[in-house]
Amino acid sequence: QLLPRSVSKCALLAAICGVCRSLQGGMLFPTESPSREVKDVSGLWRFRADLSPERNRGFEQQWYRSPLAQTGPVIDMPVPSSYNDITQDAKIRDFIGWVWYEKDVWVPARWIQDRGTRIVLRVGSAHYYSVLWVNGVKAAEHEGGHLPFEADIGGVLRQTSGNQCRITIAVNNTLTLETLPPGTIQYMTDRSRYPAGYFVQNTNFDFFNYAGIHRPVLLYTTPTAHIDDITVETTFSDNIGLVSFNVSVLGSSKPAVKVTLSAHDGRCVASADGIRGVLKVTDVNLWWPYLMHENPAYLYSMEVTEDGQTDVYTLPVGIRTVKVTSTQFLINNKPFYFHGVNKHEDADIRGKGFDWPLVVKDFNLMKWMGVNSFRTSHYPYAEEILQTADRHGIVIIDECPGVGIKDIRSFGNVSLAHHLTVMEELVRRDKNHPSVVMWSVANEPASEMPPAGFYFKELVSHTKSLDSSRPVTYITDSNYARDQGAPYVDVICVNSYLSWYHDPGHTELISLQLNTQFDDWFGKYQKPIIQSEYGADAVSGLHSDPPMMFTEEYQTTVLQNYHNVFDQKRKEFVIGELIWNFADFMTAQTITRVVGNKKGILTRQRQPKAGAFLLRERYWRIANETGALPAWARFFALFTF
Ligand code: GCB
Predict the structure, then answer these.
(1) According to its UniProt record, which protein family does this protein belong to (predicted)?
(2) Closest Cα to residue 318, out of 264, 265, 257, 375?
(3) Relative to the CA of 477, which ligand 1 atom is closest?
(4) Rounded distance from Cα 229 to ligand 1 centre (Å)
(5) For tag attachment on the chain, is the N or C end more exposed, with fewer CB atoms within 10 Å?
């Protein structure tokens, strides 16, 4: 029972129900307010990997029924964190199957006593498949890492023990042909080489399949009659900003909703009554990207109240527009050039576990380098990261976990139905972030295969039906002539590794080949193009002149050759460049990776290689050319470089 039985069952049900169902309920980020409390129950949890041959002993023996320590040996496990790099045990690092987490928490008595209080348990994300119990009673099941899930646990708590609450979460990292990302389990049957029952997990993506509870676990309350979801869309005309809102209220038959929008200084600039409407903001302060305006990242505060003050939820709102022409990407009707990075959620020890020091350090590094954008390669990042981007004006291409879709069997209806569900979960979670300007539905799928056309048509059109205000793309590395999905996307995003995977060592070919790449794509589709990945591995501290592969000099030479072409093509239809990668990151062990992927311009510990200084100079120069830099930054750019 390596594979969670319910994975394929759920996906199958979704497929049978058809591709156009939508998710129940909203997924507002838990915040405190006069009517809501939040209690973070992250920290140290008890942990046990199910090492039984079938990985199914935990279910057979019902480990959720009693304290985990009574079932066998448990160890400390921090949450949030991947479990893989926490111990000294390679069996835990490379574990495939079910692991069990458990924590006892106290729930405030008043939450339990007040029947008008909803008590919700929310897991920011757990990779990959999760089952959640409270006091031994099953409360939720969720497929997919990188996105939150939650359960109303008030009923269970009131029926069971009262204030003490034992939370058990079983998490399975097994990937199948129908999961996102896909993978396969391969049993090795040659008894002369492998012991009985030996298996490996195969994947088609280039990052370590970190697992565990990756984001905070929160308990929070709302009144029973509560604001369940809010959707805002923004636009403007002259100096008037327009914010259309749609509020969904649950638990009340006649919701009385009031919405007010306040400026930075607390001044109310617009208000309205009702669950939907449009707020008009005169002398609007638009949300501008970092380095594009004197006063970037302006956020209004939208307070939604239900029935007087019964429930109150406050949402930051940035007013901005996004449009695409055949050659440009426009933010607030002005051309925007993506000078940015691709990232990973990845760090020493914690793996993909959310970590504020790392988030703040990464934003400081991005701003230091003059980065105005990043792509959440290859999965949705923590909401706290998106909120930080909103506040700093860093633009985001928001990618779903559709990476490594290479096997033709992963283009079937079950996979498609799950992929659509993931897009629904992603849009539901991230739709209100001004920083998010585009959805990416996949990375380097085998888009030349015949089923890919139908698959991507469905994906792109469904994503547009969920959110018509943002362009949609997927990232391609395939030959343009054979691409089946490109006709459906708004922006062509191309990954290429000239002089690395093709013609290794021959940087002199980059100029010719990159020009051909751009001209071919634009010639065929007349859509703006982002170079969504390019780069070369460099082992920090390794040098050679003339440059050789894997040295810092080679990495900078590759970058310079690409940049020369970008500088020509950005006058035409190239609208952005995203280096692969912001930092070195961990991968599976293979003969092509030396303790991970070294294409970072920073080391995994966030120390700059030569490429970081090169990029920094370039990005500040580009920002300065736009003429929209704030005075301090223009001064800085002129005198620093
Ligand atoms: C790619 C992938 C990325 C890899 C990168 C590489 O095209 O999108 O996930 O890490 O190439 O370094 O090979």
Answers:
(1) Belongs to the glycosyl hydrolase 2 family.
(2) 264
(3) 7
(4) 36
(5) C
Q: Please give the Cα distance from 215 to 147 (Å, whole number).
A: 9
Task: Tell me if 399 CB under 6 Å of ligand 1.
Answer: no
Q: What is the pLDDT of residues 74-124, one digit of tens each?
A: 999 999 999 999 999 999 999 999 999 999 999 999 999 999 999 999 999
Instruction: Name the closest-CA residue to atom 7, ligand 1.
Output: 495
- What are the angstrom distances between the C-alpha of 36 and each of 25, 28, 224, 314, 471? 18, 12, 11, 11, 35
Burial (0-12, 13-18, 19+ Cβ within 10 Å), 406: middle
For the question of residue 141 being annotated catalytic, the response is no
Tell me the DSSP string of 194-238: S-TT-EEEEESSSS----EE-S-EEEEEEESSEEEEEEEEEEEET
More confident residue, 477 or 433: 433
CB 430 within 8 A of CB 232: no
Positive or negative: CA dihedral 43, 46, 52, 57: negative
pLDDT tens readout for residues 152-209 = 999 999 998 678 899 999 999 999 999 999 999 999 999 999 999 999 999 999 999 9
The runs of H, that is alpha helices, within 101-230 are 109-113, 154-159
Q: Of residues 383, 444, 458, 533, which has the active-site annotation?
A: 444
What's the pLDDT tens digit per position in 269-302? 999 999 999 999 999 999 999 999 999 999 999 9
Nearest ligand 1 atom to the CA of 585 is 10
Q: Which residues pair with 468 in a beta bridge?
A: none
Contact 580 CB / ligand 1 (< 6 Å): yes
Cα–Cα separations (whole angstroms), residue 504 to 286, 436, 473, 499: 46, 35, 29, 4
User: Which of these, 612, 559, 564, lies nearest to 584 by C-alpha position?
Assistant: 612
The residue whose C-alpha atom lies closest to atom 3 belonging to ligand 1 is 206
Check pocket membership of 597 for ligand 1, CB cut-off 6 A.
yes
User: Which pLDDT value is given to residue 21?
Assistant: 46
User: Look-up: residue for tokens 């050679």?
Assistant: 544
